[in-house]
Amino acid sequence: MILCGQHPFGLEAADQRDNIKRRNAVNAHCLERHSVEASDLVQRMVLKRASADDCINHPVVWEAHQRFLYLSELVRSDKHMRLPTHETLGIGITDWRFSIRKGSLLLPYLKSGGANYSSKPHDLIRMLRNLYQHPPAALILHDLADELASLYPRLFVNLHTIFGMLSFNLGGVT
Asked: Is position 107 within any domain?
């Protein structure tokens, strides 16, 4: 029922449909507290009847390396410059640089090239691509991906929603 939005016995009474909608809303809220990306995938499966390819190519299944390859391809193809002007990528503030706090893995890299990055979301993507392509010696990619998930939990879901899958192989995910 959670995956397809239908009662397994095909019950169709109005009160049963309302009950299913309420349960889906509650489940989505609970799931989103743990993972925005997983919640997005389940909602796509329930509401939009996502295909198997959509599920397999969803950001929730991407590894850290694949996430940064995706950002690299967005910058390489200049698609990141075509973000809608109102799009904040789920950052929720007008200047993404203010969300980077002391102790962040991004802070030293931002300080070293800070003048090169504006407050626009496309510059966040560019900075992340540059950091991926020219990492400091001690940077662990999985740690950076975890930090991005905590700072910007909707980043990859929103990028994937806007740009979809790109025409290159993400190392097992196409």
From this structure: yes
Residue 22 CB: number of other CB atoms within 10 A?
A: 10
Shared domain for 92 and 70, answered yes or no, is yes
Q: Pull the structure tokens for residue 31.
A: 């799931």
Same domain for 36 and 114, yes or no, is: no
**Tens-of-pLDDT digits for all 174 residues of the chain?**
555 555 566 656 677 667 767 777 777 777 777 788 888 888 788 777 778 888 888 898 899 999 999 999 999 999 999 988 787 877 766 788 888 878 888 888 888 876 788 888 889 999 999 999 988 888 889 999 989 988 888 899 999 989 988 865 555 444
Kindly report whether the global pTM for this prediction surpasses the value 0.85.
no
**86 within some domain:** yes
Dist. CA 158–CA 169, nearest whole Å: 20
**Residue 93 and residue 151 in contact, taking contact as beta carbons nearer than 8 Å:** no
In this structure, is residue 174 part of a structural domain? no
Query: Is 25 within the bounds of a domain?
Result: yes
Tokens of 159: 């990028």
Q: Give the domain range for residue 23.
A: 14-56
Within 10 angstroms of residue 9's Cβ, the number of other Cβ atoms is 8
Question: How far is C-alpha 98 from the chain's CA centre?
Answer: 19
